[in-house]
Amino acid sequence: MADAYAQAVSSLREQAERATDSLMKNGPRLLIMGGSGVGKSSVVNACFGRHVANVSHSIPCTSSISHFPPTERCPIHLYDTKGFETQSNNEDILRDLRQLLQERRDASASKSSLEERMAERLHAVWWVVDFRLEVVLFNTVAKLFEDDEVPIFVILNKCDRAKAEVEECLKATSDRCTGATAVIPVVAAAKHGPMLKLCEACDSEEILIMCNARKSFYVCQNSDCQQCDQQQKVKPAYGIEKLFEETTARLPVLVAKSFRQAELECFHDLQHNAHAIIVGFASVAAAAGATPAPFSDFFLLTGIQVAMV
Ligand SMILES: Nc1nc2c(ncn2[C@@H]2O[C@H](COP(=O)(O)OP(=O)(O)OP(=O)(O)O)[C@@H](O)[C@H]2O)c(=O)[nH]1
Ligand SMILES: [Mg+2]
Ligand SMILES: [Zn+2]
């Protein structure tokens, strides 16, 4: 019994290592853009944790774009753009974006297999905004990416404010940024309460918020709420899962796998998670009513893997 267990762990580890290699080779290429101080770094941290935002492993790509190559724990190529300035025409950034696009087209053209060519392309843009919107610049950039069919997701950050205010801004953003694939509200680093300042248990706006350096909670005042008068913790971030879902849905299947993978920071720690993985794996296989799929295919079952680890 112990032997069989050890064998299963070791076989899973081997398969996971192979899957990781392939994920790293085919990691999605994600470009982060946005004005200064809108929360680009906070969004990256909320999504990919501390495994990427480390400046020391970035490679200057152009003068205003840094490339963060994939790591074992975060198999994603991140291209981080210098925040643009409202007072400038941002010609330098536009020039660098053209250069990056060309570089990626050339890299793609140099490969022979479809799989490799696809892996070299830029796969998505995350355009982070807070409540100011650079519409002209956005539309210029959207045009730039149009030919390459790169989806642009506008991430409306700092949605830890009143619902009416956020909804108005979401509408204005969708109306004016016509080239956006989707506009997604998030709270990358909650400072003023939960998303939309709504109770997470009942959606009521009647909440009292207490956020300072030491405490971060709120109390729902709605007498029908199950959590009424209870302290509820303000989470570090909101809306990140939705952002992943929306982005994954638009990625080529090949790279979508590694994108989801980035969420599973602990995945490589197989020894630690072996038991949960084996239990999860067996139950998925049983539910599918088939012989167990190879581990790499298992990553396709994205909903399940998140629940599992
Ligand atoms: N209220 C609130 N503040 C946020 C949120 N996300 C980020 N911030 C704050 O916004 C400020 C800027 O965040 P950064 O992540 O450094 O923004 P950035 O776009 O990387 O900034 P630059 O790199 O300087 O251009 C910080 O003080 C953050 O704490 C959020 O969801 N809500
Ligand atoms: Mg930053
Ligand atoms: Zn409530």
Report what the structure shows.
44% of the residues lie in helices and 15% in strands. The chain is built from eleven helices and ten strands. It is α/β, with parallel strands linked by helices and 309 residues long. Helix 7 runs antiparallel to helix 8 (253-261). Mean pLDDT is 79; it is low at 265-309. Helix 6 links the parallel strand 6 and strand 7. The protein has three domains: 1-27 and 270-309, no CATH class; 29-189 and 236-250, P-loop containing nucleotide triphosphate hydrolases (Rossmann fold), CATH 3.40.50; 192-234, no CATH class. It is globular. Bound molecules: guanosine-5'-triphosphate, magnesium ion and zinc ion. Guanosine-5'-triphosphate binds next to helix 2. This is G domain-containing protein. GO terms for molecular function: GTP binding. It comes from Cladocopium goreaui. Residues 90-117 form a coiled coil. Keywords: Coiled coil.
Q: How many helices in DSSP terms?
A: 11
Q: Strand content of the residues, in percent?
A: 5-15%
User: What would you give as the CATH superfamily of the largest domain?
Assistant: P-loop containing nucleotide triphosphate hydrolases
Number of domains: 3
How far do the termini sit from each other? 23 Å
CATH topology of the largest domain: Rossmann fold
Given as residue ranges, the uncertain stretches (5+ residues, pLDDT < 50) are 265-309
Overall geometry comes to: globular
Helical residue percent band? 40-55%
Q: Please write the CATH class name of the largest domain.
A: Alpha Beta
How are the strands of the largest sheet arranged? Answer: 2-3-4-1-5-6-7
Q: SSE string, helix = H, strand = E?
A: HEHEEEHHEHEHEEEEHHHHH
| Alpha-carbon Rg, integer | 21 Å
Number of strands: 10
Q: Which ligands appear in the coordinates?
A: guanosine-5'-triphosphate, magnesium ion, zinc ion
**Main beta-sheet strand count, sense and barrel state:** 7 strands, mixed
Average pLDDT for all residues:
79
Organism: Cladocopium goreaui
Pfam families: MMR_HSR1
GO molecular function: GTP binding
InterPro entries: GTP-bd, P-loop_NTPase
